[in-house]
Amino acid sequence: MYILGIFKTTSKKVGLLAAIGLLVMGWGSFSAADAKEQSIPRREKVVYEDLSSYFDGYDGTFVLYDLKKRTYTVYNKEKSEKRVSPNSTFKIPHALVGLQTGVLQDADTVLRWDGTEYPFPEWNRDQTLTEAIQNSTIWYFQEVAQRVGPVREKRYLQVFRYGNRDLSGGLTNFWLQSSLKISPKEQVDFLRRFYTYHLPVSKRNIDIVKEILVLEEKNGALLSGKTGTGWKDAELNGIPINGYFVGYVEKDGNAYFFATNIEAEDHATGGNAKAITLQILRDKKLFDGE
User: What would you report as the CA-atom Rg of the chain, rounded to the nearest whole angstrom?
Assistant: First the structure.
């Protein structure tokens, strides 16, 4: 069943003055044109679609945005607007913050493993930024957060308009099933600004992260994305209760941004959210990958 609606989106305090302020502070190339684009109200179509058959056993949602048609496809409207912890999907904005502040220099920036044994063997060694995103290495980004510091972390959350912008869970844990929360709809809108260079971040740094996020190319379509898993009581490798997969498909000169979130008492992993997403994308003829 399809239901049509209209979203009217407006900017939230990121206007020309904010752009000028960021330029003065040396945060990155954020032009007056960027600020103007974000301040213009946009009217966009929304299609509500019943995709419940893909989410058996989960409280789930799927949001898709067609950049050319300016159309959202949404399953489970209420949950699409519910803010939950981003977990490792936060590595996308966090990498941008690290690069833009100079804490990270490029995709090959190495941070040294301190010898702590983790339940994931691929974490137990030195990591580059590319490896830390691909392996979802939490300790790497905890070190990034410490070097960035709370003041700059907070400012970037504000100018990124990233969810509830709440760091109260602690500098090295706020995104890990903790205080920072973002809805699937907000995830999609952040990815749109990221992809179209409408963030206060240099093109170079956005392009670095874009390249790292590429997962697969097949039949002329390119899939990019990041998973995230939230564990009960924030215990690593415990009971997964919050699974995210966010990203976009580039195909035929267009881009399709998506966010899938699942919650359950168990088995709600980022990997399972990814599997659901890929099946939906296959059925919609957007991406036929593994």
Answer: 18
Backbone angles phi, psi at 145, to 5 degrees: -60, -40
Q: Are 110 and 126 in contact (CB under 8 A)?
A: yes
Helix, strand or coil for residue 99? helix
Cα 98 to chain centroid, rounded: 15
Greater pLDDT, 130 or 5: 130
- Whether 290 is in a domain gets the answer no
Which position among 29, 31, 85, 88 bears the catalytic label? 88
Q: What is the pLDDT of residue 50?
A: 98
Look-up of token digits 């936060």: 90
Domain range enclosing 96: 2-283
Residue 9 host element (H or E): strand 2-9
The pTM score is 0.86
Mean predicted lDDT score pLDDT of the chain: 89
Answer whether residue 288 is part of any domain.
Answer: no
Residues 6+ apart with CB under 8 A from 121: none
Give yes or no for residue 35 having a pLDDT over 80: no
Return the CATH number at 263.
Answer: 3.40.710.10
- Please report whether residue 142 resides in a domain: yes
Question: CA–CA separation, 210 vs 227, rounded Å?
Answer: 15
Q: Could you tell me the end-to-end alpha-carbon distance of the chain, in angstroms, rounded to an integer?
A: 27
**Total count of domains within the chain:** 1
Whether 213 shows a pLDDT value over 70: the answer reads: yes
In tens, the pLDDT along 145-193 reads 999 999 999 999 999 999 999 999 999 999 999 999 999 999 999 999 9
Q: How far, rounded to the nearest angstrom, does the alpha carbon of residue 4 sit from its chain's CA centroid?
A: 26
Whether residue 179 lies in the annotated active site: no
**Packing angle between helix 184-195 and helix 203-213, nearest 10 degrees?**
120
Q: Above 60 in pLDDT, residue 33?
A: no
